[in-house]
């Protein structure tokens, strides 16, 4: 199925205006962003460069298990587009967690590193008085591919309403390096991690389902795999993706606060 919406005309100009206006509304003219060497952060970094010029700081934060290409591709991107950047390894934090939590599984280790990265981004934002810009796309947000108080922590996010396949279109519009566009999507939580291998499906297939879900449901908590079967989707796929969406809905809601009555 190819039901992914085409990108609107002048989308790049519109995104630049969004970033500029949202930062201005909050009293900022400078932003910080974590660059991972992946396609989402590459797109956001280039958009921020186009918006803020050199009033931008990228932070590259490799861990013990980060792939070599994460750093090399991230650096190459920053140098090609003249994006100011710093490299700050998180190996010491990563190692300390591993020493103190020897029983931690790969997900716990990955989530810890993700939260350390965001802590460093917010520290840098305080140091240079800048706004933290997020890089999560709509597919990741719906599927729960994100860590609370980690990569889901940011002030503004230009990609949150774009499906992953649309991010690839944006990347081509922005002339993102082919090495980044062609690599397998990965949160780089641990060595060899792959989004599509974990999902069991390619993003273009999952995105088609997500588009139909958004067209038929305003409340994702009421998703029902049986009701989506007539749309022609594989039953196994529905039984895998639908529970995943519902299970991770809590990541997209603000903390519930007790109301005094």
Question: Explain this structure to me?
Answer:
By secondary structure, this protein is mainly alpha-helical. The protein folds into 2 domains: 11-189, HUPs (Rossmann fold, 3-Layer(aba) Sandwich), CATH 3.40.50; 196-252. The protein has 12 helices and 4 strands, in the order αβαβαβααβααααααα. A 4-stranded parallel β-sheet has the order 3-2-1-4, sandwiched between helices. α2 (39-52) links the parallel β1 and β2 (56-60). α2 crosses α7 (164-173). The longest helix has 23 residues, at 106-128. The mean pLDDT is 94.
Blueprint of the fold:
Elements: H1 11-25, E1 31-34, H2 39-52, E2 56-60, H3 68-80, E3 85-87, H4 91-100, H5 106-128, E4 131-132, H6 138-143, H7 164-173, H8 178-182, H9 195-199, H10 203-216, H11 225-228, H12 235-247
Parallel strand pairs: 1-2, 1-4, 2-3
At the first level of CATH, what is the class of the largest domain? Alpha Beta
* Number of helices, counting only DSSP H or I runs of 4 residues or more: 12
Strand order of the largest sheet: 3-2-1-4
Q: Can you tell me the CATH topology of the largest domain?
A: Rossmann fold
Structural class: mainly alpha
Sequence stretches where pLDDT stays below 50 over 5 or more residues: none
How would you spell out the order of helices and strands? HEHEHEHHEHHHHHHH
Which CATH architecture of the largest domain is right?
A: 3-Layer(aba) Sandwich
Q: What Rg, in angstroms, do the CA atoms define?
A: 19 Å
Query: Which of globular, elongated, flat, extended, rod-shaped describes the shape?
Result: globular
- CATH 4th-level superfamily of the largest domain: HUPs
């Amino acid at each position: 199925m190819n039901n992914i919406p085409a990108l609107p005309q002048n989308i790049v100009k519109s995104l630049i205006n969004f970033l500029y206006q949202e930062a201005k509304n909050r009293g900022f003219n400078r932003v910080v962003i974590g660059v991972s060497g992946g396609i989402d952060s590459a797109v956001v970094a280039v958009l921020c460069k186009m918006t803020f010029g050199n009033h931008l700081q990228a932070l590259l934060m490799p861990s013990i298990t980060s792939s070599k290409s994460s750093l090399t591709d991230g650096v190459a991107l920053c140098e090609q587009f003249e994006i100011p950047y710093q490299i700050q390894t998180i190996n010491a934090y990563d190692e300390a967690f591993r020493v103190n939590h020897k029983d931690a599984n790969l997900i716990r280790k990955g989530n810890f590193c993700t939260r350390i990265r965001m802590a460093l981004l917010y520290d840098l934002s305080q140091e240079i008085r800048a706004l933290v810009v997020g890089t999560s796309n709509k597919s990741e947000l719906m599927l729960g591919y994100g860590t609370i108080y980690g990569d889901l922590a940011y002030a503004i996010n230009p990609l949150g309403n774009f499906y992953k396949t649309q991010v690839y279109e944006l990347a081509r519009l922005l002339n993102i390096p082919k090495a980044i566009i062609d690599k397998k999507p990965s949160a780089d939580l641990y060595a060899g991690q792959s989004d599509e291998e974990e999902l069991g499906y390619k993003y273009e297939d999952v995105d088609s389902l997500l588009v139909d879900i958004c067209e038929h449901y305003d409340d994702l908590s009421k998703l029902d795999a049986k009701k989506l079967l007539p749309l022609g989707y594989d039953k196994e796929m529905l039984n895998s993706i639908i529970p995943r969406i519902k299970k991770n809905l809590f990541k997209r809601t603000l903390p519930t606060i007790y109301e005094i009555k």
